[in-house]
Structures are given as C-alpha cells and as structure tokens.
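Whether sequence alone determines local backbone shape is best considered at the level of individual chains. For completeness, the protein is quoted in full, as a sequence line and a line of structure tokens:
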Amino acid sequence: MMAGALADPGFVESWFRARIEKLLPGPCRGSGGVRVIEVDRMSRGVSRQTWTVDVETDDRSRRRFAVRRDHQAGSIIASSLRDEYEVYRRLDGSDVPIARVLWFEEDPEWMPDGRPAYVRELVDGDWRLPALDDHSLDGDAKRIRLSKEHLVS
C-alpha cells in the first residue's frame, strides 16, 4: 500500500496516531489521542522540505511538530536525511540545545508521498541572527566571529 500525501491532514493524523502515541506519554496515548489541527509547508527550505504539524490531544493541549524530508528531486546537500536525523538523535540529552527527534519514517506504508521523512518536536525560536542585518562596524565584527564559529577545517 502506498502512503498518503503530507498535505493531507487525514493521512497525517492516521500516521501520527500510528507512531506518536507509542512515543509520547500522557494524553497522546490511546485510541484517538491525537487530532491533527493543521499541516503546513514552511516557505523556507532550500536543502529539504520542512512541514509543520499542529496536533491536539484528548485533554485539549496542543503540540507542534516538524516533518523533514528531501524534495521530490532529492536534496542539494551532501549529507543524507538519515544522517541529519542521526545528528539530532545523538545530540539529544547533550549540552547542545536541539529539537528532539521522535522517529525516522521509512516504512512504505507510512512514508508521506512515498519518500522517507523524520519527525521532531517544533520549538519556539528564530533562525535569523540579528547581526546579519546590522551593517555597522560592530555588526561586521559579529558576522566575522559567527562565520569563524561555523568554519569547517
């Protein structure tokens, strides 16, 4: 059986019910414990697609998740989607703040649109660094310092 589309909230709800209720404690457990409220593709995402999934549990609490997957034509970066997932998984519990990954999907029955994906919690935050838009001398110094932090030898 071919999985459904990531843009289809009904498919995503079935998928999450099949997977997430086994992973998360409390109100997510049990039949019908997860209802998908919204599925939306984020506008950013050149290297890979990122979709947000908002769910509501039986106790009316809401949780947000991100689904990452390669574009239909593949990714433009050298590392695989599985490698990206493994980096997050291995950083869990370390001093590096990350969004916790929940599962990597490669079961053909559940792969959205027939492509592997992984699901992680969505955390509040902003990817933008204020120094990138600061055109002062101080902003220049911050950009140089930031680029050195991310320099790969």
